[in-house]
TrEMBL record:
GO function term, MF aspect, one: aspartic-type endopeptidase activity
InterPro entries: Aspartic_peptidase_A1 (IPR001461), Pepsin-like_plant (IPR034161), PEPTIDASE_A1 (IPR033121), Peptidase_aspartic_dom_sf (IPR021109), Plant_Aspart_Prot_A1 (IPR051708), TAXi_C (IPR032799), TAXi_N (IPR032861)
Alphabetized SUPFAM superfamilies for the sequence: Acid proteases
Recorded family membership: Belongs to the peptidase A1 family.
Species assigned in the record: Linum tenue
Residues at the catalytic site: 99, 329
Name of the protein: Peptidase A1 domain-containing protein
Length: 460
């Protein structure tokens, strides 16, 4: 009697199931508001966030030195959103501010890490958690000949490496990649570049380029760059898109988080249900290489209570000099608008809030404007605000995303501008969509299809 044939179809099916299960298609990371406030004074908290938002905006817009706040009360991370990542073998976990406005990932590093001007009420400068390279078997200094050094310094980096470009020098030059120094609005950091293993529960990423910061100012927490550079976290892990949903700032230490998702599936280019999309705009090519890091979008109109605000096209579209246009930035708290754009929006807001008294004292205390006295009112009707993008996508902001209860019976507008009279500081993006206006939205950066998506969603 003949024996039955081997069950090849069944074996193949099982192997297919096993191989499919072993492929990681997405990485999910909890994301939550950064730091606890160093003060319970709401006016002081709002004043810090307004000042920090403007300072960061001016830094994103310009490569020039800018004035610094001489009396910091908060860590620079406050007002942003943080994630926890693990590096090394064995893995060491630390907290990072998630930042779409920069690309390099760096952490406080070595037992000698020094953070100047970090004497915040909720931070002990002598006890900031640091990555210790000597405790990892996979940590290596980045060499000058390593192609990843060019990610930071460009193709001519070898001219910065003493000895590597000398006649007769060895092709295996052991010179390390030059130290880095980065400015973040009110904070800064400097250190050496490493390659290390990034350890997710779902996946290990070897030879990940990461900054080992030895010295920082006002920067007690690392930065996870999610920008458009090759050194960004999404780029290095091969993400096709990433998304997040930011819970509301509650201005307290409530432990609330949501999800940041890195999608690694090359077939993930299909549209997410109910998400409105607008294409990313091509980044302007100028002498300011930082502009290549940002996510530019095509903001076409700003609408207040159904009326299109008159904004000159030079502010909505970046010119050949890199001035103008709109970027999305998770590291900026309050959305920033250049002075002419801001004044035009505020003018339309003011027309529809004419029945309320301007709360000038609250404006002085918070740095926000306009603020209105609404005490004694059971309900307050404020004008609707929305952003219209290329392709028909419209972000209709909930009131809580552009007005805040500021205490003493006042509400304040949470979009900011610089205090320069006239046209303000020109250069770089004119509008920066901050995280405060992104709260309780599902936000998607589709890197494969080159588009930005969003939909209203309760994030907590």
């Amino acid at each position: 009697m003949a024996s039955p044939p081997p069950p090849y179809p069944l074996i193949l099916s099982l192997l297919l199931l096993i191989s499919t299960a072993a492929v990681t298609t997405a990485i999910t990371i909890p994301i939550s508001p950064s730091s606890a406030p160093a003060s319970t004074d709401l006016h002081q908290i709002l004043a810090h966030l307004a000042s920090a938002s403007v300072s960061r905006a001016l830094r994103l817009k310009s490569t020039h030195n800018l004035p610094q706040d001489s009396s910091p009360v908060f860590a620079t991370s406050y007002g942003g959103y943080s994630i926890s990542l693990s590096f090394g073998t064995p893995p060491q976990s630390t907290s990072f501010v998630m930042d779409t406005g920069s690309s390099l990932v760096w952490f406080p590093c070595t037992s000698r890490y020094l953070c100047s001007r970090c004497n915040f009420p909720n931070v002990d400068p002598a006890a900031i958690p640091s990555f210790i390279p000597r405790n990892s078997s996979t940590a290596m200094l980045l060499g000058c000949k390593n192609p990843k050094c060019q990610w930071i310094y460009g193709p001519n980096v070898e001219s910065k490496c003493s000895g590597c470009d000398a006649p007769g020098s060895s092709p295996n030059c052991t010179q390390t990649c030059p130290p880095y120094m980065i400015q973040y609005g009110l904070g800064s950091t400097a250190g050496l570049l490493l390659t290390e293993t990034l350890d997710f529960p779902e996946k290990k990423v070897p030879d990940f380029l990461v900054g080992c910061s030895i010295l920082s100012a006002r920067q007690p927490e690392g930065i996870a760059g999610f920008g458009r550079g090759l050194d960004s976290l999404p780029s290095q892990v091969g993400a096709k898109k990433f998304s997040y949903c930011l819970v509301s700032h509650s201005f307290d230490d409530a432990p609330v988080s949501s999800d940041l998702v890195l999608d690694l599936d090359s077939g993930s280019g299909k549209k997410t249900a109910e998400v409105s999309y607008t294409p990313f705009r091509k980044n302007p090519v100028t002498s300011n290489s930082a502009l290549q890091t940002y996510y530019y979008v095509n903001l076409r109109q700003i609408v207040v209570e159904g009326k299109h605000v008159k904004v000159p096209s030079e502010y909505l579209e970046p010119g050949s000099d890199g001035n103008g246009g709109t970027i999305v930035d998770s590291g900026t708290t309050f959305t920033y608008m250049e002075r002419p754009v801001f004044e035009a929006v505020v003018k339309e807001i003011g027309k529809r809030m004419a029945n309320f008294t301007v709360a000038t004292e609250i404006q002085d205390l918070t740095g926000l404007r306009p603020c209105y006295n609404v005490s004694g009112q059971d309900t307050v009707s404020v004008p609707e605000l929305s952003f219209k993008f290329k392709g028909g996508a419209e972000m209709k902001l909930p009131v809580t995303n552009y007005f805040v209860l500021a205490g003493d019976g006042a509400i304040c507008f949470t979009i900011v501008s610089d205090n320069v009279v006239g046209t303000g500081l020109r250069g770089g993006p004119a509008i920066i969509l901050g995280n405060y206006q992104q709260r309780d939205y599902y936000i998607e950066y589709d890197l494969e299809k080159e588009r930005f998506g969003f939909k209203r969603q309760v994030c907590a």
